[in-house]
Amino acid sequence: MPVRVRTAHQHTAMFVVDADAAQRMIDYSGLRVCRFGRGHRRALVVLMLMRYEDTDLGQYWEYGTNVMVNPPGSQAAGLSALQAAGAFVHHLPVDQAFTLEAGRTIWGYPKVMADFTIRAGRTFGFDVHIDGQLAVGMDFKPGLPVPAAFTSRPQVHSTYSYADGVVRETPGEMRMTGVRYRPGGVDVRLGDHPYAAELAALGLPKRALVSSSAANVDMTFGDAKEIV
C-alpha cells in the first residue's frame, strides 16, 4: 500500500436527485447524504466509468454509482457542505476477478462481475450487463477542454464503503489531465437488472448537471479505515 494507478481514462456524469430517495437507497450504510438546495431536498449522485490501463491491480473496466455523503457524524447541509463530502460507493461492477477480490477484501467495495460493451468514436458510450441483464448504459457527447492548470493539481478525496456491517473510509489522491466538461451532455438508459430499478427510483434517466471526461487519471488509494 498504497495502490497506484498510473494510467486510467474516466467518464463521469453528475446528477441532482431527490435527497430522500438517495437516502433510502443507502440507508443500509448508516451514512447520511449531503443535502443542499431549498429545504435541503437535493443530493448529488455521480455515475462513473473507468478504464484502468496501468495499475497495481491490472487492466480492467469499472462502473460506479457514487452518492455524495457527509463524513460520519456530520449533520452539515448546504452547498458549502459539499466541499467536505465524500463519495459513498453503492454500485461497483468490474470485469476482472483479481480486482474484484482485491476491492472487496482490502476496501470493502461492493464489486460484482459484469460485462462491458464499449462504443468509441465522436461520442463515447458503454453498456454494463450483470448476469445477462442490462444495468445501465450511457452515451457521452464531447465536452470542452479545461486548461490543465485547473485540473492537474493533486486532489485529495475520501470514498466510503459498506460491507459485512462495517463502514470503511479510504483516502485517495488524484491528478487529472486532458479534462473536458459539458453541461448535460449524456444520455442514460436503464435496463432490467435490479441496479436499474434503484437508479430509476432516483428519477433517472434525466438531464445531467454536468458530464466530464479525463484522458488520464493518476491516483493512489491508501488502506481502508474502519469507521463503525
Automatic annotation (TrEMBL):
Q: Which GO terms describe its molecular function?
A: lyase activity
Protein name (record): Acetoacetate decarboxylase (ADC)
Q: What sections of the protein cross the membrane? A: none
Q: Which domain of life is it from?
A: Bacteria
Q: Which residues form the signal peptide?
A: none
Q: Which Pfam family is one of this chain's hits? A: ADC
